[in-house]
Amino acid sequence: MIQQRANFDWLLKDLAEGVPQTRHVVVLSSDGLCMAQHGTERDTAERLAAACAGLQSLAAAVAAEVPHSDGRMRMVVIEITGGFFYLMAAGERAYLAVLADEGVDAGLMGLRMRDLVARIGEHLSSPPRNDEQRA
């Protein structure tokens, strides 16, 4: 939940330091709001979170075309020049995103992200937003 933001700092730090070549770690809501971050400035984390919202929506649209799929995105990995980007469903309406350098152990990163989500996934959620909550 958003009010628990500070409680995630050490967990995100543990992921970042446990996988060499990790650059940025961000927890975001499905609507692209940064909930927690490690290894990045706030502006960068917010840009990554916003981009991830579009990416998870695109991945869900692709998943909807797979027979017997529930249409939900579980994990997206993008190899880019100079590194890798990972986006993983991490709780209800929440995602874990990691940007890592080219030398990262991709298998280790996926495993550590899955472990983190399994340990605290139920706490990595974003409450639904509606017009009453914004007022």
From TrEMBL:
It holds the Pfam family Robl_LC7. InterPro entries: Mycobact_SerProt_Inhib_Rv3364c, Roadblock/LAMTOR2_dom. Residues 9-100 form the Roadblock/LAMTOR2 domain. This is Roadblock/LC7 domain-containing protein. It comes from Streptomyces fildesensis.
